[in-house]
Amino acid sequence: MAEKIIIDTDPGQDDALAILLALASPEIEILGITAAAGNVPLALTEKNIRKVCELAGRADIKVFAGCDKPMEGALVTAEYVHGWTGMDGATLPEPTMPLQDKHAVDFIIDTLMSEPEGTVTICTLGPLTNLGTALTKAPKIAKRIKRIVSMGGGLFEGGNITPAAEFNIYVDPKAAKIAFGCGAPVVILPLDVTHKVLTTKPRVAAFRDFGTPVGEAVAGWLEYFERFDVEKYGSEGGPLHDPNVIAYLLKPELYAGRECNVEVETASELTRGMTVADWWGVTDRPKNALFMGKVDADGFFALLTERLATLR
Ligand code: RIB
Ligand code: CA
Hints:
Layout: E1 3-9, H1 13-23, E2 28-35, H2 42-55, E3 63-65, H3 79-82, H4 104-114, E4 120-124, H5 129-137, E5 145-151, H6 167-171, H7 173-180, E6 186-189, H8 191-194, H9 201-208, H10 213-233, H11 243-250, E7 255-260, E8 262-264, E9 275-277, E10 289-295, H12 297-308
Parallel strand pairs: 1-2, 1-4, 2-3, 4-5, 5-6, 6-10
Antiparallel strand pairs: 7-10, 8-9
The protein binds alpha-D-ribofuranose and calcium ion (CA).
């Protein structure tokens, strides 16, 4: 039985690889992909999703546009990392597949209400605005979610857009707080994981060696996307964030973490968007999330490379 998922995403080169990994994996059935505003504005993220689906030959995938700004406050974007298109490093043709008329929030609600309870996984790769809005509009969907698997947050690795906060949570802390506290099982792939999976030159070369349009696009994206983090961290490559969400679905044994309480700071100017994970159990707050800390990086890239090579 394939794992039924909704991917909520703000492409973003790393988001694109996550979408491609899901499309290349028969264990996964994508019910729909919903566009979030994040790395770049919504008008670009929804188009980028369709470009990636067509790159993979999957114009059948249903793509929905979501909220164009966070639940509170103004949108913060990251063109300085991803480029003005959000997917600089490779040029893909304008999409011809349709964007669905239904709003992403309504698609999330309608899908959770129509699919059997506890069978749909929500994978969030960007700010959680669409999911937070859906949970606010229809709180009854919370108990129908199989699990929420999110790239976001950080603990021992701190933040990447501020010293305290990771980008996805920082952009919409209210939405993240709602999602992580809704009662559905939550799995978080934070910077503590993604900073351990670096796009080193041999790993990027392995994609280009496919000799396919997918391999060429992926290598181009990674060479562009990593430059910012390589300079910032002085590392051998950039952290590859979002594909870890899909890799966790496919091979959870690649990851290790612990159930703990995870709260989101929404009020402080200094630490807005910080994920406060009670890793050492010093409070009696409920353990609402599986917070990951370790990853088999070679196993992750072996999976990613093997699967993306199948996309022709
Ligand atoms: O902080 C990394 C996250 O922010 C990734 O999801 C990246 O795509 C951006 O959305
Ligand atoms: Ca993302």
